[in-house]
Design goal:
The protein has helices at residues 5-8, 12-32, 36-63, 65-72, 77-91, 98-108, 112-138, 146-167. The chain has 171 residues and is mainly α.
Length: 171
């Protein structure tokens, strides 16, 4: 198993996390300065960038799924035969990369409980429930849709909470 920083940097989730980490202090400084319009601009660019990366990574997963496999391991023929279906299903979740960004955003906007809910929902609660339920409902391959569905549910919650946060005056 290949496991070094060169290969980790290629991982879509980490690439999106880096953008979120870079945005957090900029949002926080502008929040502290009461510059709501700047925060709106940062959101526009950060979410736009996340959307572009999401589309690129999803297309990559759909078009060259075994490329993702080769990033992390030296695959056998049997892995190369089953991986495309799995990567393509899971890769749909890259279309909704906003939950990673939103955790950093809510922390910067002094909304730690919202950040916690997003993080736990994505990382454990919703995904955990779906990992158990989807194979029962849709068969064994249903498990690979756990993250795309999780990302969709969290994205809806995140969008509602971000709108509320943007409408509240900065104190």
């Amino acid at each position: 198993l290949r496991h070094d920083h060169q290969h980790q940097r290629l991982c879509p989730v980490l690439r999106l996390q880096h953008r979120a980490e870079a945005s957090q202090p900029i949002i926080s400084v502008n929040y502290g300065a009461g510059e709501a319009h700047r925060i709106g601009e940062i959101l526009k660019y950060a979410l736009g960038t996340a959307a572009v990366f999401g589309v690129v990574w999803t297309l990559s997963a759909e078009l060259v799924p075994n490329g993702f496999v080769r990033i992390f391991i030296t695959p056998t023929d049997s892995i190369l035969s089953i991986a495309p279906g799995i990567i393509r299903r899971y890769g749909i979740s890259f279309l909704l990369p906003f939950s990673i960004f939103s955790t950093y955003y809510f922390q910067a906007m002094m909304k730690p409980s919202t950040a916690f809910v997003v993080s736990m929902s994505r990382g454990a609660v919703i995904s955990g429930i779906l990992i158990y339920l989807l194979p029962v409902i849709a068969g064994a391959s249903g498990i690979w849709f756990a993250m795309p569905i999780t990302e969709l549910v969290v994205a809806v919650f995140m969008a509602v909470m971000m709108r509320r946060c943007q409408k509240q005056p900065i104190r």
